[in-house]
Design brief:
By secondary structure, the protein is mostly helical. It has four helices and no strands. It is rod-shaped. It starts with 15 loop residues before the first helix and ends with a helix. Keywords: Membrane, Transmembrane, Transmembrane helix. GO terms for molecular function: xenobiotic transmembrane transporter activity.
């Protein structure tokens, strides 16, 4: 049998997930008109890689939220402090995605990796800020108790 090869080249800056979805839809459409026995064989498809990267970022976010909550609860014994960090994480990540969209940057592997790394910085800063606020409030409370 005869074989014909083809390749899809994505334009710079395009969203890979959208391009892959559009190509797959077009392939289904074209396949309907092909003679019997003629099929498409995909040799490389990045959609699995993209889905795994997105799932990895989601998983990392959930794992970090649970770990940070437990650490803050164990060391500060203060559930409100843990709640502050839990609220801070998804808001920070959401703002990151909003800014990516606003500047026309696609959510590719590099940007998702950057967001995963930034989550660590946000957590570290959140813990430092909460611990400092907790210490300051405790000192002021102690000072007020001593003045009475």
């Amino acid at each position: 049998g005869e074989v014909v090869g083809g390749i899809v080249v994505m334009r710079y800056g395009e969203n890979a997930d959208k391009v892959i979805t559009a190509v797959k839809e077009k392939m289904k459409e074209v396949e309907k008109g092909l003679p019997e026995g003629v099929t498409f064989k995909t040799s490389y498809d990045r959609s699995d890689l993209i889905e795994k990267a997105i799932a990895s970022v989601k998983g990392t976010l959930i794992e970090i939220m649970i770990t940070v909550s437990l650490v803050v609860l164990l060391f500060l014994f203060h559930w409100r402090s843990a709640l502050i960090i839990l609220i801070q994480l998804p808001i920070s990540v959401s703002i990151g995605f909003i800014l990516l969209e606003a500047f026309g940057i696609s959510s590719n592997i590099m940007s998702l990796t950057g967001i995963a790394l930034a989550i660590g910085v946000v957590v570290d800063d959140g813990i430092v800020m909460v611990e400092n606020a907790y210490r300051t409030v405790s000192e002021k409370q102690e000072e007020m108790d001593n003045n009475q």
